[in-house]
Write a structure and sequence with these properties.
By secondary structure, this protein is α+β, with helices and mostly antiparallel strands. It has helices at about 5-35, 200-205, 210-220, 225-230, and strands at about 90-95, 110-115, 120-125, 130-140, 140-145, 155-160, 165, 170-175, 185-190, 195-200. Helices cover about 25% and strands about 25% of the residues. Helix 3 packs across helix 4 (about 225-230).
């Protein structure tokens, strides 16, 4: 029969082993959570310039041979030029992401210039992979975003030259130029490829069309109204 002292030592040994296992598990869980939370691939070297000619499919873009990388891979010109805002919504977005600057690959950042005609809008849209921070360079903008279901709370703010506003990742947001002259804003986004889903285009301009009877129920209108809207996209 084992003595009480021996049993105590075995119990103490088991406790110490469990504590050691827990200490090893905690850093592993923290590391795993960091990987899961990352929206873009994290760089493991100085840079990973995108190789647009590669046919290999990865989460991001395959790296170009570093020996073939040049300064122009990190360069874009022309963001000082106003874009043509003669569009149905009265605005134009000039994106500067990994497509325009291959050197952004894996760095988790991009930007865009937005030009607005008087009373033009950047219609309700969402960036599925990025938070956006918008700075007004010229003009006056009404901006806003809507929270997710079921509250669907609307946050709005009038911005003037030099003002900054944040649109959280994935939330529907918009801007409108409420002045009588052109407006310009610069948007920074937390992804090399933030993506954009314009709500009206996605809902009414999908390919093929979402069946009109489904949208009629969703929007609580007649099917003929849905069909008329779809014809514009």
């Amino acid at each position: 029969m084992a003595s009480p002292v021996s049993s105590f030592h075995r119990l103490d040994l088991k406790t110490n082993m469990a504590s050691a296992q827990l200490l090893l598990l905690v850093p592993l869980l923290l590391l795993t959570s960091c990987v899961v939370m990352a929206s873009d691939p994290s760089p493991l070297q100085d840079f990973c310039v995108a190789d647009a000619n590669s046919t290999v499919k990865v989460n991001g873009v395959v790296c170009k041979d570093p020996k073939l990388v040049a300064a122009d891979d990190f360069f874009f010109s022309g963001l000082n030029k106003a874009a043509n805002t003669s569009t149905p919504v009265g605005s134009r977005v000039t994106a500067v992401n990994v497509v325009q600057i291959p050197g952004l690959n894996t760095l988790g950042i991009s930007l865009a210039r937005v030009d607005y005609a008087p009373w033009g809008i950047n219609p309700p849209h969402t960036h599925p992979r990025a938070t956006e921070i918008l700075t007004v360079l010229e003009g006056t903008l009404l901006v806003g975003f809507v929270t997710s279901n079921t509250e669907n709370r609307l946050f709005t703010k009038v911005l003037y030259k030099g003002d900054v506003f944040v649109f959280p990742v994935g939330l529907i947001h918009f801007q409108q130029n409420i002045g009588y002259g052109p407006a310009v804003a610069l948007a920074a986004l937390s992804s090399q490829n933030p993506g954009v889903i314009t709500i009206a285009n996605a809902v009414f301009g999908s390919n093929p069309d979402i069946p009109a009877n489904i949208l009629a129920k969703a929007f609580q209108v007649e099917e003929a109204t849905i069909t008329k809207i779809q014809s514009k996209f």
